[in-house]
Amino acid sequence: MTETPGGRPVLGSPVLGSPVLGSTAPGSTVLRDLLLVVLTVTTGCADATCFLHLGQAFASVITGNLVLLGLSAAKGTGAIAANSGIALGGYAAGVLAGAPIAREHEQRGPAASLWPVRVTACLAVELAVLAAFSAGWEVTGGRPAGAGRMLLLAAAGVAMGMQSAAVRRLGQFSTTYLTSTLTGVLAGLATAAKPDGLGRSLGVLAAIAAGAAAGAVISDVAPALLPLLLLTPVTAVIAASWALRDMGR
User: Fold this and answer.
1) Are 238 and 120 in contact (CB under 8 A)?
2) pLDDT recorded at residue 108
3) Contact 174, 181 (CB under 8 A)
4) What is the torsional sign of CA 72, 73, 74, 77?
5) Mean pLDDT of 207-212
6) pLDDT per residue over 17-27, tens digit each?
7) What is the predicted pLDDT for the residue at 77?
8) Which of 20, 53, 72, 151 fits a disulfide with 81 by CB distance 3.0 to 4.6 angstroms?
9) Dist CA 213 CA 208 (whole Å)
């Protein structure tokens, strides 16, 4: 976070450890923000599916999983600990695998800074993981149990960890952990200062709720269609990212 000459923090400014992006055309940044909103639909769907059908743990809400671990320690409930631990482990594995793929490299220029090709590569691997998840979901008829359920929970965590690593490469954005996003919106409203990227922030907050609602309904009523909801947003973002790179050239 940077400060104005008067010492006031500027919301949405780069923080230590966040990549600094080059200048880009406004139309390009709008498209980038739209792609981030689309990705968040998959996040909401994955979290709702994991909570409702894979052991009441979350694929991306790591704070919630840590709380569940604490509750399991206090209550002595091994099932809660196992489920939240699997989700945490999967997410961590996804970040560890995705960060090297999405890392900054020698390519320069507006196109590279707006949406690096390595981000698309990382999302492509996430898509492969989600495809494997979808195959397992279909094999079990949308009602996994036992070891199959645990494997699917871990796979969902891996996918969300990879998505988090990919999006983090773009800057101070997120399509998975949104507490700070909501905090920025509310703080801006309270101080009558429009937060940077307000449209994007509102978009991802709405998208995660919409994705969760759709995922909850589809996984219950038409579980065979759940892979469509999980895979379509990521596939669309991967395809559109090439157009975004062309705009940045």
Assistant:
1) yes
2) 57
3) yes
4) positive
5) 98
6) 344 344 455 66
7) 83
8) 72
9) 9
Average pLDDT, the chain: 87
- Under 8 Å between Cβ of 219 and 211: no
Tens of pLDDT, residue by residue over 49-79, are 999 999 999 999 999 999 999 998 888 888 8
Residue found under tokens 């690593």: 165
Lookup result for tokens 């699997």 = 86
CA distance readout (Å), 156 to 19, 43, 93, 113: 26, 10, 11, 28
Q: Which residues contact 186 (CB under 8 A, 6 or more apart)?
A: none
Dihedrals φ, ψ of 3, to 5°? -130, 150
Query: How far apart (Å, rounded) are the C-alpha atoms in residues 249 and 247?
Result: 6
Q: How far apart are the first and last CA of the chain?
A: 28
Rounded distance between C-alpha atoms, residue 36 and residue 66, angstroms: 26
- Which residue, among 171, 195, 214, has the nearest Cα to 40 in the 3D structure? 214
Report the pLDDT value the prediction gives residue 164, as an integer from 0 to 100: 97
Task: Please give the backbone phi and psi of residue 161, each rounded to the nearest 5 degrees, phi first.
Answer: -65, -40
CB 122 within 8 A of CB 102: yes
Say what angle helices 26-53 and 198-221 make with each other, to 10 degrees.
Answer: 30
Q: Report the SS3 class of residue 3.
A: strand
Residues β-bridged to residue 3: 9
